[in-house]
UniProtKB/TrEMBL annotation:
Alphabetically ordered keywords of this record: Membrane, Transmembrane, Transmembrane helix
Protein name listed in UniProt: CNNM transmembrane domain-containing protein
Membrane-crossing segments per the record: 21-41, 53-75
Domain of life: Bacteria
Lineage: Bacteria, Bacillati, Bacillota, Clostridia, Eubacteriales
Organism: Butyricicoccus porcorum
Length: 192
């Protein structure tokens, strides 16, 4: 019983005081672990026998992947579902999925920004370390330090600058982005 109102307290499944969803936290942590291990393994395997140009392309792909998911995460939290209701009533493909994205913005944002975005950042850092090792294998000390600083600085500036542009885009075009993602989800769920 609630001491203030005399009404029975509602039980919240898998939540502690403060509205923390323990089940979601455990799930996202486990998913993060397996995604991180998988992406790390795949990037290491991909970088084993490739040239420097291909390694840089892989690095840029990881950076781009993180930026794209950051945009989706921001758009999901900035968007309103109002526009999608009339579309769903007209059976526009992707509208139902867009409503789901907006209604689950906290989880979608957490997954896109924290899980995929952070893992992409970690993997791009590891990938740049492998590239630096390849490029500085027989290099003099000063050259290796300068090359390491240049690559690290470029990766950081591309990631941070890309995410800054992405956040602006995610906020200003949130409904268009959410609808695009909704259409992609509808397409892939239809293909099953």
């Amino acid at each position: 019983m609630d001491s203030d109102s005399g009404k029975p307290k509602k039980k919240t499944k898998n939540k502690q005081s403060g509205g923390v969803n323990v089940r979601w936290i455990v799930t996202i942590s486990v998913v993060s672990f397996f995604m991180s291990v998988t992406m790390s393994y795949l990037s290491q395997r991909a970088l084993e026998n490739v040239g420097n140009i291909v390694a840089f392309v892989i690095l840029l792909a990881f950076i781009g992947f993180g930026i794209i998911f950051d945009i989706i995460g921001v758009a999901s939290t900035a968007s309103s579902e109002k526009r999608f209701h009339s579309m769903a009533a007209r059976k526009v493909p992707g509208a139902k999925q867009a409503i789901w994205i907006v209604r689950n913005a906290e989880k979608v944002g957490s997954f896109c920004n924290d899980v995929v975005g952070d893992i992409s950042g970690i993997i791009s850092g590891a990938t740049s370390a492998v590239i630096i090792t390849h490029l500085t294998n027989n290099a003099a000390d000063l050259r290796s330090v300068l090359l390491s600083l240049a690559i690290t600085g470029c990766v950081a500036s591309l990631t941070i600058g890309g995410k800054a542009v992405g956040k602006t885009l995610g906020i200003s075009r949130s409904e268009d982005i959410v609808f695009l993602v909704g259409r992609l989800l509808a397409f892939f769920s239809w293909k099953k």
